[in-house]
Amino acid sequence: MSLEVRNLTKAFGGVKAIDDVSLVFPTGSLTAIIGPNGAGKSTFFNLITGAFPVDHGQVIFEGRDVTHLSRAARVREGIGRAFQVASCFPTMTVLENLMAAVTSHIGRWGNLSHRAPLPGVRERAMEVAEMVGLERVADVEASILSHGDQKLLDIALALALEPRVLLLDEPTAGMGPEERWRMIERVRALWERQKLTLVFIEHDMDIVFSVAASIRVLCYGRVLAEGTPDEIRSNQAVIDAYLGTEEHAA
Ligand SMILES: Nc1ncnc2c1ncn2[C@@H]1O[C@H](COP(=O)(O)OP(=O)(O)OP(=O)(O)O)[C@@H](O)[C@H]1O
C-alpha cells in the first residue's frame, strides 16, 4: 500500500476538522476526495504533508511511519503536493522556476544561478514542463501566465521533486467549464504516464464521477463513504449530506 492514514485526528479549538479517519490509497490509484465545505478535506492533506501536526493517529507511507517527519522530509520520502495558490517565483520564467525546483531537489541551492545551471538541470526542468504541457510557455514569466497555466506550474513544481504520491487540492478551482476539462484531462494523463498515486480534492461532481476510479467522501471530519463512482452516486448518506444539496443536484 502506498499511502495509509490510521485514526487520524485534528482539532482546531473545539472543532474536530479530522475525526478518527482511517483510509488507504493503494499504489498507482487515482482517488477523489469530496465533501461539503468545511468537511476537513484540506486539513486532511495538511496532515499528510506535515503542514499541521496531528493530534492523534498515523500517516504511513510505503510501510514507513512518517507522522512525525518534517514537511521537507516527507517531500524527500516522495509525498508531493500542489497548492491552491501559486507557489512559484513570479518574476522568473516557467523554465527558471522549474530549474530552481530541480536544483533544490538535488540539494544544490548554492548552484541556483540559471545562467550556469548544473549539468542536466535544464533538460530535467524541460522534461517536467513537458509532463504537464507547459513547454509552449517555458520562457514566459510566471506572473503573466493564464490562471490554468499557473495551476499547471504548481503541479510541475511538485513533480520536479519526483513524488510517488501527488496530492492536488482543487486543481480546477477558479476555471471555466472548458478549461476545467482540459486541466483534469492533463491530470489524468499525467497519472497514467507517470504511474503516480494521485489523490485530488474536487467540488465538480461531473469531473469526479468521470475521472476518479475511486472516491472518498468526508463530512464533518469523518469518512462518510468510500467506493467507486457508481457506489457513491447511489449511496443514500452521501446523497443526503452532499449530492442532494442544491449545488450538486443533477
Ligand atoms: N488553520 C486553521 N485554524 C482554525 N481552524 C481551521 C484551520 N484550518 C481549517 N480549520 C477548520 O477546520 C474545518 C475543516 O476545514 P477544511 O479547510 O479542512 O475543510 P474543507 O473540506 O477543505 O473545506 P472547503 O471545501 O471549503 O475548502 C473548518 O471548520 C475550518 O474552519
UniProtKB/TrEMBL annotation:
UniProt-listed GO biological process terms: D-alanine transmembrane transport; L-alanine transport; L-isoleucine import across plasma membrane; L-valine import across plasma membrane
Assigned keywords, A-Z: ATP-binding, Nucleotide-binding, Transport
GO cellular component, one term: plasma membrane
Gene3D superfamilies: P-loop containing nucleotide triphosphate hydrolases (3.40.50.300)
UniProt domain ABC transporter: residue ranges: 3-245
Residue ranges the record marks as coiled coil: none
Pfam families linked to this entry: ABC_tran, BCA_ABC_TP_C
GO molecular function: ATP binding; ATP hydrolysis activity; L-isoleucine transmembrane transporter activity; L-phenylalanine transmembrane transporter activity; L-valine transmembrane transporter activity
Domain Guanylate kinase-like: 28-240
PANTHER family: AMINO ACID ABC TRANSPORTER ATP-BINDING PROTEIN, CONSERVED COMPONENT OF ABC TRANSPORTER FOR NATURAL AMINO ACIDS-RELATED
Family: Belongs to the ABC transporter superfamily.
Protein name: Branched-chain amino acid transport system ATP-binding protein
Species per Swiss-Prot/TrEMBL record: Enhydrobacter aerosaccus
Source taxonomy: Bacteria, Pseudomonadati, Pseudomonadota, Alphaproteobacteria, Hyphomicrobiales
